[in-house]
Amino acid sequence: MPLVSEPWLGQMGWSVTRVGVAGRAEAMRFDVITLFPAQFAALTEEGVVARALQRRIARIHLRTPRDYTSDAHRTVDDRPYGGGPGMLMRYEPLRAAIEAAKAEAAKDGVRSRVAYLSPQGQPIDQAQIERISTAPGWVLVAGRYEGIDERLIEDCIDEEWSIGDYVLSGGELAAMVVMDAVIRLLPGALGHADSARQDSHSSGLLDCPHYTRPETIGGHSVPKVLLSGDHQAIERWRLQQALGRTWQRRPELLQARGMSEVEQRLLDDYLREAARSKPGVGSEQSE
Ligand code: 4FV
Asked: Which of 199, 207, 263, 273 is an active site residue?
């Protein structure tokens, strides 16, 4: 069964090749089951992911369940038992598409696990993204309508993931969010290997503020320490800022992460300075 024939597929040169990239035996493989393959151009046309595909650091294959229907109308949805609004995606086309994707990946030596994107899934955070990025391949099922037949989830889905407690019109954007967050972590994807490691959330903290030229603008000057060339002092300041902002904006992250004594002292200094510089502002947590 051919993959969805999208002109931009060829441009990405998505042939099955094994590439040696430091740290990974082969390119990470994503097979996406979706009724709207063209939507993925948003991810694959430009930017870090497009470059990672060109560098064969990752591969994305798109498959529509409509190609796995047997009726003349290529029906992929049907009404819910028990009544109620909307439609559901049918079991058979989805199962056939998933099995075709797994078979294609297996031919490629990749044993893919299957994940379904839905509000009922486990919340995805950076730690989950790092775990997901260690697998050789994933089949991602992007739902539409009110969702999919529950028996498909029982029979074919290994993991269910949610990108947030809100309802999208389809799982495509959620699948793209996960693939973007995963592919940028792959060795060679980001220009600067370190930048992924210094990500916010990868340390369990929010990111510190960042500045670039000009040195002064809008009456604001860049914090002096950043002009000092004293990299130890700069690293200490950045950690202190990350701790302070996390305490103020996302205290639950700090509770979950915990702090070393050094970090606790850095935070105390930060909050003292915040209280001193702007009495009543910044020293409280923004509930
Ligand atoms: C979603 C989420 C999400 C639900 C019904 C697609 C939609 C429709 N996926 N995280 N939040 N999915 O809202 O992952 O089929």
From this structure: 199
